[in-house]
C-alpha cells in the first residue's frame, strides 16, 4: 500500500468554487452495483477471481523458499496471547465501528440449553448473542486466528466452547472466552480441523475431524465436552467427512472416499454401508434424519462438483445435480429429506431432493433489503435442531449471519447491530471532521460514517465490492479516489457524496488492488501504480485522461509498482517500490527516476508495499513490507539513495501500512499482520501497542490530529482508535529544552506562545494546519537568550481568519525542534 500524501486544506471559498465549477459535468453517474469480487459468471471466472485475490495476498507475503509465513504468524499470535497477561497496557483503545456492517461469518452453533447463538468470524473471532441476534459480544479478542471451520458448545456447568481457528489451532474455553486452553489427546503437530459437532444424545460428547497431508484423516471423540480426545478412526485417505444425527444423536456416519461407514458404538467399530460409483477427490457429507436416513454427498469428480443422494442409508447412490457455484458448503433439513441447499456466491435451495435448485435470492437484492435478503458469498450453512424451538437454518455470509425458520424460504439478518467483524482494507478520515470516515471493506463495499459519540458508529455502504487505497489530495472528502479490482472509484462531495467510475489505464499491468496516490497539487488527479506510473485526471462523470511516465519500473526487477509516495515537505521528491522490492527515487517530480543502488541488507525477498515520507525532512522516508526473511521496515535519510533496516522489535511479519503521528512528528506507526506497532521518533526499536485491542490483522493506519489518535483498520474486527497521548509503556519522552507552550488553548481569537532559549541564536516559529502546510510565519529572527512570548491571532500570512480546527506551532532553534498542538474555536 502507498502512504497518503496530501496538501493543505483548501479554504471554504475555494471548495465552493470548485463545486460550482464542476457541478455542470459531475451529475451522479448511474451504474449497476459491481458484482462481488468472487462473482458468479461461470465456474472458471469465479475460480479465477478467487485465485487472483489469493495470489495477491501470497505475493505480499514474499519470503525465501521454504519459509512458511503462516507458521511464523501463528507463532507470533501465540506469543502475543501468552505475553498479554503479564505486559503493561500501552495507550488506550476505542472501538469506532462498524456497528452495523458485519464481515465474513464462517460457522455457527447454539448453546447446549438452546437459548444462545455462537458465530465464528474470519479473523473476527467468536461472538455470542441470543437466537434473535440481540446483545452480540466478542468472546475471543484474546485468541489469535479467528474462527473458521467450526464452533461447538458442549457440557453443562460450565458450558465448554471449542473453536477451530484459521491457524490450525484448536482451543476450548470453560469461562466464555476469558481463557483459552489446548485440548489433550490431539497430535502435537498442527492439524487442520475440518468439522466439529456435539452429539445431541450426550452433552459431553463431541466429535472432531482433523486432516493433515502427512497423516491422512483422523476422527476423534471427546467424552468430557472437548477438554480431551481419543482417536476413533484413522485413514490414510484425505478424502473424508462425518455426520452425526442432529436430533436423537448417537448414530455416527463417516464417508471415506466413495464409501459410507456406520458406527453404532461411538466409533469403536465401523460397518461399510455402500459405495458411490466414482472415486472423488473431495467430499462434503450431509444427512437428513427423516427417511432411512437420507444422505447427500457433494463430490468432486474429475475436477467437477456433483451432487449424489442415497435414500437407503448409503446402500445405493444416484446422481442428482451438477454444482457450479460451490464453496464446499452444503446442508439439509432435519425433517424434510427433499430439502437440501448448497452455497457459494449465492445460496441455492432444492425442494425436490436435489433434482433442481433455485437461488434463495440474487446477491444484488441484499442492497435494497439487507434485513430479509442474503448477502453475497456464503462460506457457511448450518442447520440445527434446537430443543423447544425446532429446526433453524443459519446461513453464514460475507455480510454476517442470518436465521431461517422455514427452510430458507425466508431469511432474517441477525447482524445489523453490534456484530463488529468488519474487514477493512483502508480507512480515510476527513481533515474537516474527525468523525467523518470513508472505508474500503472486503466485500462489504465502500462505506461512509458521519458522526459518532462514545460508541461504535453505523456505516452506510455506498456501493458493493472490495475497495482499497483510499486517497485524497487535501485530506478532505471533497474528492476521494479508491480502487476496486477493475476500476477507480471517485467519491465526490464532502456531504452527500456521489460516485463515479474510472477505467484503469489501457494495457496497464498492475496488482489485483493497484495502489493509487492522490496528487497533492490537483484534487482531480491521482497516480496509478502499474508497470509504469500513470497520472490520471478525472474530468467529470466517468471520464478520465491518463498520461504515463516513460520510466519502465520493471527494468530492475518486478512486475509492477507496489508503492509510491510524495514528500509533503518537498513535492519534487518522490519514491517508488516494485513488488520485488526494487526501490526508485526522483528529485524532479518524477521527470526522471533513478534506481536505488543500495537496497539494504537482506532485501532479496522483500516486498515493499508501505511507503511514508517524513513530514519534517524531505530526505527521510520509511518503507515497510514483508519481513519474513529479513527486516520488515527500511529507512532512508538521503532521499532514497540508500536504505538501512529498521526492524528491531518487530516479529517476522508483513507491514501493510505506515503512518506518522501527524504533520509535526516522526513517531511512526505500523499496521501489520501481527498487530499494531509504534516507533518513537529518534528510536530504533519498535514497540507493540496491541494490548487492549483484539488479536487480529491490522491492515491500515492513519493519523487523526484533531482527536490526537491513530486510527487503525483491522481485517476482522473493524476500526479502532489508539490514543497516542496515552502511551505508558514506552520510556517517557524528555521535556524539550525549548519548552514551547501556549495559553489559552483552546483559544479564540488569540493565543500566546512561550518558549525559552538557553543561548542567543536564530529561531523560527511557524503555524501549520493538520495537513502540514505552513499557514503563518510568526517569527524568523536572531534572538537573545531567555524566555520569549509571541502572540498568534488565528490568521494566516495574508491576514485571513482561519477556520476552527487543529493547528500546530513548530519552533526551530539551536538545532532543536519543538511543537505545540493548538485548537482554534471560532
What share of residues are in beta strands?
35-45%
What is the terminal separation in angstroms? Answer: 37 Å
Gyration radius, rounded: 29 Å
Just name the CATH architecture of the largest domain.
7 Propeller
The CATH C-level class name of the largest domain: Mainly Beta
What would the principal axes of the Cα set say about the shape?
A: elongated
Number of strands: 62
The average pLDDT value, as a whole number, equals 89
What CATH calls the topology of the largest domain is: Methylamine Dehydrogenase, Chain H
In what order do the strands lie side by side in the largest sheet?
A: 1-55-54-53
Q: In terms of per-residue confidence, which ranges show pLDDT below 50 for 5 or more consecutive residues? A: 1-31, 37-47, 729-736
Contiguous helical run count: 3
How many domain regions?
A: 3
Major β-sheet profile: 4 strands, antiparallel
Instruction: Look at the structure and name the CATH superfamily of the largest domain.
Output: YVTN repeat-like/Quinoprotein amine dehydrogenase
Instruction: Tell me the helix content.
Output: under 10%
How would you describe this protein?
- With 826 residues, the protein is mostly beta strands.
- It has 3 domains: 12-37 and 422-720, YVTN repeat-like/Quinoprotein amine dehydrogenase (Methylamine Dehydrogenase, Chain H, 7 Propeller), CATH 2.130.10; 102-413, YVTN repeat-like/Quinoprotein amine dehydrogenase (Methylamine Dehydrogenase, Chain H, 7 Propeller); 741-824, Immunoglobulin-like (Sandwich).
- The chain is 6% helix and 41% strand.
- The chain is built from 3 helices and 62 strands.
- Strands 1-55-54-53 form a 4-stranded antiparallel sheet, with no helix packed on it.
- The longest helix has 18 residues, at 43-60.
- The model is unreliable at 1-31, 37-47 and 729-736 (pLDDT under 50).
Amino acid at each position: 500500500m502507498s502512504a497518503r500524501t496530501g496538501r493543505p486544506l483548501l479554504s471554504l471559498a475555494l471548495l465552493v468554487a470548485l463545486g460550482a465549477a464542476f457541478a455542470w459535468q459531475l451529475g451522479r453517474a448511474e451504474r449497476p452495483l459491481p458484482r462481488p469480487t468472487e462473482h458468479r459468471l461461470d465456474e472458471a471466472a469465479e475460480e479465477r477471481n478467487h485465485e487472483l485475490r489469493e495470489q495477491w495476498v501470497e505475493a505480499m507475503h514474499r519470503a525465501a523458499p521454504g519459509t512458511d509465513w503462516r507458521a511464523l504468524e501463528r507463532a507470533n499470535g501465540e506469543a502475543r496471547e501468552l505475553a498479554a497477561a503479564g505486559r503493561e497496557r500501552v495507550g488506550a483503545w476505542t472501538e469506532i465501528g462498524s456497528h452495523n456492517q458485519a464481515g465474513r461469518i464462517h460457522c455457527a452453533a447454539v448453546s447446549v440449553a438452546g437459548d444462545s447463538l455462537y458465530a465464528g468470524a474470519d479473523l473476527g473471532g467468536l461472538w455470542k448473542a441470543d437466537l434473535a441476534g440481540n446483545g452480540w459480544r466478542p468472546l475471543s479478542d484474546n485468541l489469535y486466528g479467528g474462527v473458521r471451520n467450526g464452533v461447538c458448545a458442549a457440557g453443562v456447568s460450565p458450558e465448554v466452547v471449542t473453536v477451530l481457528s484459521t491457524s490450525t489451532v484448536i482451543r476450548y474455553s470453560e469461562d466464555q472466552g476469558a481463557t483459552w486452553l489446548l485440548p489433550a489427546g490431539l497430535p502435537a503437530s498442527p492439524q487442520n480441523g475440518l468439522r466439529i459437532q456435539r452429539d445431541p444424545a450426550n452433552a459431553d460428547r463431541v466429535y472432531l475431524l482433523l486432516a493433515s497431508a502427512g497423516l491422512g484423516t483422523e476422527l476423534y471423540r471427546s467424552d468430557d465436552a472437548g477438554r480431551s480426545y481419543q482417536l476413533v478412526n484413522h485413514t490414510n485417505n484425505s478424502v473424508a467427512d462425518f455426520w452425526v444425527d442432529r436430533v436423537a444423536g448417537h448414530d455416527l456416519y463417516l464417508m471415506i472416499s466413495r464409501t459410507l461407514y456406520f458406527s453404532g458404538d461411538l466409533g469403536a467399530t465401523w460397518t461399510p454401508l455402500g459405495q458411490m460409483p466414482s472415486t472423488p477427490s473431495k467430499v462434503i457429507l450431509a444427512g437428513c434424519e427423516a427417511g432411512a436416513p437420507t444422505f447427500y454427498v457433494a463430490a468432486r469428480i474429475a475436477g467437477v462438483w456433483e451432487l449424489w443422494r442415497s435414500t437407503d442409508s448409503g446402500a445405493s447412490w444416484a446422481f442428482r445435480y451438477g454444482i457450479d457455484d460451490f464453496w464446499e458448503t452444503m446442508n439439509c433439513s432435519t425433517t424434510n429429506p427433499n430439502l437440501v441447499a448448497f452455497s457459494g456466491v449465492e445460496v441455492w435451495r432444492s425442494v425436490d431432493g436435489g433434482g433442481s435448485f433455485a437461488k434463495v435470492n440474487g446477491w444484488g437484492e441484499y442492497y435494497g433489503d439487507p434485513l430479509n435478503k442474503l448477502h453475497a458469498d456464503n462460506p457457511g450453512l448450518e442447520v440445527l435442531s434446537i430443543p423447544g424451538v425446532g429446526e433453524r437454518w443459519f446461513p453464514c455470509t460475507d455480510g454476517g449471519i442470518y436465521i431461517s425458520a422455514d427452510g430458507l424460504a425466508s431469511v432474517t439478518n441477525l447482524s445489523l447491530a453490534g456484530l463488529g467483524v468488519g474487514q477493512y482494507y483502508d480507512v480515510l478520515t476527513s481533515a474537516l471532521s474527525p468523525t467523518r470516515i470513508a472505508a474500503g471493506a472486503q466485500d462489504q463495499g465502500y462505506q461512509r460514517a458521519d458522526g459518532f459519540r462514545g460508541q461504535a458508529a453505523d456505516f452506510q455502504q455506498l456501493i458493493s465490492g472490495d475497495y482499497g487505497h483510499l486517497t485524497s489530495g487535501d485530506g478532505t472528502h471533497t474528492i476521494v479516489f479508491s480502487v476496486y479490482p477493475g476500476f477507480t472509484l471517485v467519491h465526490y462531495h464532502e456531504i452527500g457524496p456521489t460516485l463515479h467510475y474510472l477505467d484503469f489505464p489501457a494495457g496497464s499491468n498492475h496488482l489485483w488492488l493497484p495502489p493509487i496516490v492522490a496528487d497533492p497539487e490537483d484534487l482531480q488527479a491521482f497516480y496509478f501504480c502499474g508497470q509504469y506510473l500513470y497520472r490520471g485526471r478525472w474530468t467529470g462523470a466517468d471520464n478520465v485522461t491518463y498520461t504515463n511516465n516513460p520510466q519502465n519500473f520493471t527494468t530492475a526487477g518486478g512486475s509492477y509498482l507496489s508503492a509510491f509516495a510524495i514528500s509533503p515537505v518537498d513535492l519534487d521528491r518522490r519514491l517508488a517500490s516494485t513488488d520485488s522490492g526494487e526501490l526508485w527515487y526522483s528529485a524532479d517530480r518524477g521527470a526522471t527516476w533513478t534506481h536505488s543502488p543500495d537496497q539494504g541488507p537482506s532485501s532479496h525477498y522483500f516486498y515493499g508495499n508501505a511507503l511514508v515520507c517524513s513530514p519534517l525532512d524531505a530526505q527521510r522516508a520509511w518503507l515497510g513490507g514483508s519481513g519474513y526473511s529479513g527486516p520488515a521496515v527500511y529507512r532512508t535519510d538521503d532521499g532514497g539513495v540508500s536504505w538501512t533496516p529498521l526492524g528491531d522489535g518487530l516479529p517476522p511479519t508483513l507491514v501493510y501500512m505506515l503512518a506518522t503521528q501527524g504533520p509535526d512528528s516522526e513517531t511512526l506507526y505500523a499496521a501489520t499482520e501481527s498487530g499494531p506497532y509504534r516507533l518513537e521518533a529518534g528510536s530504533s526499536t519498535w514497540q507493540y501497542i496491541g494490548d487492549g485491542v483484539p488479536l487480529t490483522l491490522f491492515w491500515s493506519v492513519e493519523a487523526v490530529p484533531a482527536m490526537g489518535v491513530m486510527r487503525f483498520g483491522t481485517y476482522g474486527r473493524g476500526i479502532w482508535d489508539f490514543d497516542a497521548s496515552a502511551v505508558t509503556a514506552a520510556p517517557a519522552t524528555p521535556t524539550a529544552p525549548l519548552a514551547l507552550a501556549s495559553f489559552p488553548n483552546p483559544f479564540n481569537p488569540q493565543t500566546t506562545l512561550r518558549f525559552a532559549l538557553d543561548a542567543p541564536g536564530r529561531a523560527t516559529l511557524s503555524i501549520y494546519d493538520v495537513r502540514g502546510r505552513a499557514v503563518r510565519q510568526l517569527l524568523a529572527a536572531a534572538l537573545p537568550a531567555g524566555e520569549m512570548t509571541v502572540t498568534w491571532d488565528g490568521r494566516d500570512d495574508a491576514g485571513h481568519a482561519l477556520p476552527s480546527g487543529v493547528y500546530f506551532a513548530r519552533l526551530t532553534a539551536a538545532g532543536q525542534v519543538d511543537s505545540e498542538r493548538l485548537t482554534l474555536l471560532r
